[in-house]
Specification:
The protein is α/β, with parallel strands linked by helices.
């Protein structure tokens, strides 16, 4: 019964919306630029202190990308070409700032401060070439940053916890993590709120972050993925005012209610449009070997791609940064890059007419502004 329900759901989410006969594949990858676990030394200190995070995938495997992470990922992507000569490209949904732990502490936890990710990189070893590698990836059209947020932390909730100064939160803060000390919770739901009054500050952070994005990467981000797929639709106004035309996400938007963990559901389909003429892009495939318990992550992803193509939909693959990170666990990176090669080989074997795109390129196509060669169907 569960298999039948899963199959029906995978088909159902692909039925409504924009269609095309072109076999388009996107890889949307979140969390680039954000801190998570600074080092194995910090991880060991947390374990020694009694925090049970050995089963927390993000705290165990994810860290700010290093030189080797990018070099090895780019080597894999450069091996493949689609039917029109494009390499697979990572839409790298990027965080542009991180907490400034020193200044927050100097304010006696009264004020929140942040730093640009370019400053964070200077403080982490083996990250001295990351900015150059970003630019090389962009130039080679295998790495295409888009906006994911100014920082990947819910400022109001994290600062509230810090002001209470529990032993656990002070210990994790002094190690320069945003880990709460409870379970695997890291205050990641950036656009969730305790009260709607928080939305104003969230809008300011989004506008500020989008300007920082342009300063770092040299162009405006045309798409945005809300962290944890959670946001109030009121923030779409400031996104629109700052050049965002496409909103990445799942078929379900988690709408905050003011109570943590309790959300209303809002549904979107590929190509649906909001009141600001922004288009929603919907993920319908998943390649998450570091996060999923699937015994065959490649086969699972291929199955979803097949369903997407059957319904004349692009295959929009979710593949978070964690899958390609190796500074904490080299085996995580090597194993998953091997699986990525297997996935790309199989895609090209099964669908030799495939086209690799970025999220904003797909958005332009849906909006009628991209390369419209080939049959394209409008929303059903």
């Amino acid at each position: 019964m569960s298999w039948l329900l899963s199959t029906l759901t995978r088909n159902f989410i692909n039925i409504p919306g924009w269609r095309t006969n072109r076999r388009i594949v996107l890889i949307e990858s979140d969390d680039w630029g954000s801190i998570r676990m600074p080092s194995n030394e910090v991880y060991s200190k947390l374990i020694s202190e009694g925090f049970d995070i050995s089963k927390s995938d993000y705290n165990r495997l994810d860290s700010l990308e290093c030189n080797k992470d990018l070099e090895l990922l780019f080597d894999v992507l450069a091996l493949y070409k689609d039917s029109v000569g494009n390499c697979p490209v990572i839409t790298a949904n990027s965080i542009v700032g991180n907490p400034d732990f020193l200044r927050i502490k100097q304010s006696d936890f009264k004020e929140y401060y942040y730093e640009s990710v370019t400053e964070t990189l200077k403080r982490y070893p083996e990250r001295d070439n990351v900015e150059m590698l970003w630019r090389e990836g962009i130039s080679a059209r295998i790495f295409h940053p888009q906006f994911h947020g100014r920082e990947h932390v819910n400022i109001a909730r994290w600062m509230e916890a810090l002001r209470k100064r529990s032993a656990a939160i002070m210990f994790t803060f002094n190690l320069e993590t945003t880990f709460s000390g409870n379970g695997d919770y890291n205050f990641m739901e950036v656009l969730d709120y305790n009260t709607p009054a928080d939305i104003g500050e969230m809008k300011e952070a989004l506008a500020d972050g989008l300007s920082m994005f342009e300063q770092i990467y040299g162009y405006r981000s045309k798409s945005f993925i809300p962290p944890c797929y959670t946001w109030n639709s009121d923030v779409e106004e400031v996104l629109n005012a700052n050049g965002v035309r496409y909103i990445q996400g799942l078929v379900i938007q988690s709408v905050p209610t003011g109570t943590f963990g309790i959300y209303k559901k809002k549904y979107h389909f590929l190509g649906s449009i909001n009141g600001y003429a922004q288009y929603y892009l919907i993920r319908n495939c998943f390649f998450e070997p570091s996060l999923s318990k699937a015994s065959d992550p490649v086969g699972e992803c291929l199955s979803r791609i097949n369903i997407a193509f059957r319904w004349h939909k692009p295959a929009v693959i979710s593949a978070h940064r964690i899958n390609f990170m190796g500074s904490l666990d080299e085996k995580n990176r090597s194993d998953n890059l091997r699986l990525l090669r297997e996935l790309l080989n199989r895609i090209l074997e099964l669908w030799p007419d495939v086209e690799f795109m970025t999220s904003d390129q797909l958005g332009d196509l849906i909006a009628g502004e991209g390369n419209t060669e080939g049959p394209v169907f409008r929303q059903s």
